[in-house]
Design a protein that fits this description.
5 helices; about 0% strand
Amino acid sequence: MQSISGIIYLILTACLLPYAFAVIAKVAGGFRAQDNQNPRQFLSQTTGLAARANAVQQNSFEGLPLFIAAILIAEYMVISHSIIMTFGIAYLLLRVVYGVCYLLNWATLRSIVWFMALSCPVLLLLLVIKLIVG
């Protein structure tokens, strides 16, 4: 059960990451207290860095279900803790790099890093399938 704390930290970090990009989007877009009446409308009207940060936020939320499911299923199926942590940490680091690439408007590198990040939970699930099938 000691290994579960690392899993929890992975999931917690992945869940908080989109909010970091939301803060960047709001700061870059000049968010004011009155914009809190309808923050989604405010963010939808931003451009440049703020719009890109908002896109990272949205994409980060979209990727969460697959990541969380893969981590929990791998843990449940008793995939090696070191493998789960390796793929989980790689996913988080790649998601941060993805976000930086998005903010800097490096579209091609961003897409490559996005694919690499996506491959982490997919590969974990493939390991689970391999374990089940034998």
